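Lecture 7, part 2: worked example. A protein chain together with nicotinamide-adenine-dinucleotide.
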Amino acid sequence: MNIQKVTVIGAGQMGSGIAQVAAGAGLDVKLHDIEEEYVQKGLQRIGKNLARQVEKGRLTEEEKEGVLGRIQGTNRLQEAAREADIVVEAVVENLHVKTELFRQLDPLCPDHAILASNTSSLPITEIAAVTQRPERVIGMHFMNPVPVMKLVEVIRGLATGEEVYRTVDELARRMGKSPVEVNDYPGFVSNRILMPMINEAIYTVYEGVAEPEAVDQVMKLGMNHPMGPITLADFIGLDTCLYIMETLYEGFGDPKYRPCPLLRKYVKAGWLGRKTGRGFYNYE
Ligand code: CAA
Ligand code: NAD
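Predicted complex, written out as C-alpha cells:
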C-alpha cells in the first residue's frame, strides 16, 4: 500500500516531531490538536527545529519552507481524518482518551486508512477493538526526540494484518528510521526495560540515597548514558513516566512495577518536567 497522506493527532513533543520527520520524507501531513493554540505551538516547534538545521548548514532555506509547506495544522478532527492514508495518534498516554479518539476516528477515515498509535505502553489490541477495522490498527512507537532517534518499535496487535505491518515497516524506513517488530504486551520492549530503571532512579532520590544530580552523574559517567535517568524522566514528561509505570503495574500485576510515590507527588503538583518548566530540575 502506498502512503502519501499522513495525519498526526496530538501536536505535543512527539506529534510535532513525527509530523516534522514525515514532511521531511516528502509526505503530506495534517497535524491536529484539540485547540488551535496547541496546533500553533507544535508548528512553531517544528519551525524552530528546522531553522536550527538551516543554521547548521544541513538544510537550505528553500528545503525548510518545502517541509513546512507540506504540514497543514487543524483543530478539526473531521478535516484531519478525511483523506488520511495513515493516522498516527500521539495524544496523552491514557487508554480512555485513546480509545475514545479511535472510536471517533474510525468512521471519519477512508476505509483503506491505517490507524496507528504512538503509545508508549498501552494495549494496541484493546485500542483496535473499539474500531470496525482492528486488522488495520497497529503500534508505531517513535522515540523522543523524534528527529534524532533511529528506533521505531512496530507493535502487532492481536488482529493486525500482515499487509498493514509491512506498510508501516516500510513507512518507518522511508522516514529514515529503523523499525523493530515486537508483540503487544505492557510497555512492549522499550518501556518495559527503560521505565523500571527510571522509576528505580526516582526511588534512590525518594529514599535519600543520592541527589538527582548524583544519580544522573553515576549513570552518565559510569554507564555512558547520554542523559542521566532523572534528566531523561524530565525530558520524557513525568506524567508520561507515571502512566507507563501504572500500565506495567496493572498489566503484569507485579509489585516490582509500583510507581514511586515521589513520581506521583510531582505529577500531582503539575511538575511534569521540561514541558512545564519544572520537574526534578528547574528549566525556567
Ligand atoms: N528535537 C530535535 N532535535 C534535537 C532535539 C530535539 N528536542 N534535541 C537535540 N536535538 C538534536 C540537535 O539539534 C543535534 O543535532 P545535530 O547532530 O544535527 O547537530 C543532536 O540532536 C545532538 O544534540 P545536542 O548536541 O544539543 O545534545 P546531545 O548531544 O546531548 O544530544 C540528545 C541530545 C539526542 C537528546 C541526547 O541527550 C540523547 O540521546 N538523550 C537520550 C534520549 C533518549 O533516551 N530518548 C528515548 C526516550 S524514551 C522514549 O522516547 C520512549 C517513550 O515511550 C517514553
Ligand atoms: P505531550 O503532552 O507533549 O502532547 C500531547 C498532546 O496531545 C497535547 O498537545 C494535547 O493537547 C494533545 N491531545 C490530548 N488529547 C487530545 C485529543 N483527544 N485529540 C487531539 N489532541 C489531543 O505528550 P507527548 O510526550 O507528545 O506524548 C504523546 C504520546 O506519545 C503519549 O502516548 C506518549 O506516551 C507517547 N510517547 C512519548 C514519548 C516521550 O518521550 N514523551 C516517547 C514516545 C512515545
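The domain at 5-183 is CATH 3.40.50.720 (Rossmann fold). Strands lie at 5-9, 28-32, 71-74, 86-89, 114-117, 137-142, 151-156, 178-183. Keep this in mind for problem set question 3.
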